[in-house]
Amino acid sequence: MQKTLGERFIERRSIDYIPLAERHGKVWHLWPVWFSGDAHLATVATGIVGVALGGNLAWMTIAVVLGSALGTFFMAFHSTQGPQLGLPQMIQSRPQFGYVGALLVWGVALICYIGFNAFNQVMAAQTVHSLYGGDNVITMLVFTVLAVSIAALGYDLIHLAQRWVAYAMIVVLLLFTVMAAARLHLDAAQLSLGR
């Protein structure tokens, strides 16, 4: 049966259980959501903190790669449970913490997401202002309206948008890395593992 545009894109279930007949997609479809959700200006800004505090670039790079790999390993197992259970990850914590106990996890996650989004909004607005000028408040409002619109329209549009963002971010981050490597003049100590 063919779905209408509203049925296809407008989110109806939110955090509710998804019946087996309505589940679709493949496990690999999760990587663009996680990648594009984590590959952005705030990640670059926080990733450089170790070097800014005096750490060695080579060792900081190893730490970031190993930390990301370890975190990804466990989160990958957790995120693949969603399609099997028909539940989003935050709701999957109910068996471990109980129905009421999961509210604590939800509350902590909500605070983290609000802070995370505020940090990203400010970083994006400052970057747009640095590159093109303009008002930071208007830039933050544009990004907020865009993000809320995609979220309200739901699962399928989020996955489609995140897939395109992931491919674009791979290109942008590769170009950024090549340009940084070509223009930055790092001393030998930054690239040495002997420190």
The helix/strand class is mainly alpha
Cα-to-Cα separation, first versus last residue: 63 Å
| SSE sequence, one letter per element | HHHHHHHHH
How many helical stretches?
A: 9
| Low-pLDDT residue intervals, each spanning 5 or more residues | none
Q: What is the radius of gyration?
A: 20 Å
Percent helix range: over 70%
Beta-strand content? under 5%
Tally of extended strands?
A: 0
Shape: globular
Compute the number of structural domains. 1
Sequence-ordered SSE layout with sheet pairings:
Layout: H1 5-9, H2 30-38, H3 41-47, H4 49-52, H5 57-85, H6 89-92, H7 94-132, H8 136-153, H9 155-183
Structural write-up:
This protein has 195 residues and is mainly α. The protein has one domain. The protein has helices spanning 5-9, 30-38, 41-47, 49-52, 57-85, 89-92, 94-132, 136-153, 155-183. α2 packs across α9 (155-183) and α7 packs antiparallel against α8 (136-153). The chain starts with a helix and ends in a 12-residue tail after the last helix.
In short:
This protein is mostly helical and 195 residues long. The protein has helices spanning 5-9, 30-38, 41-47, 49-52, 57-85, 89-92, 94-132, 136-153, 155-183. It is globular, with a radius of gyration of 20 Å.
List keywords for this structure.
mainly alpha; globular; 195 residues
